[in-house]
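seq as requested:
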Amino acid sequence: MAHVTERERIAAEVRAELARQGKTQRQTAELVGMTQQALQMRLAGTRSFRAEEIAKLAEMLGVSVEQFLPAPTAAVDAA
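struct tokens:
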């Protein structure tokens, strides 16, 4: 099984929310202030979203920023 990066997880969460709300990449790119090509690269997981882009997306979609971020993992007690 391939390792999924944090960048890919964030991209998947953003894609899922855009799909739930029926937003197109074109609409989203315009509202966030980037080109459609730049958004496509981020949604594909080939480029990382910047913090301010995640914040704009969350505001635009009416969700919390935390929804797009991977859940923290519990520290493993080595003792």
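The CA atoms of residues 6 and 74 lie 16 Å apart.
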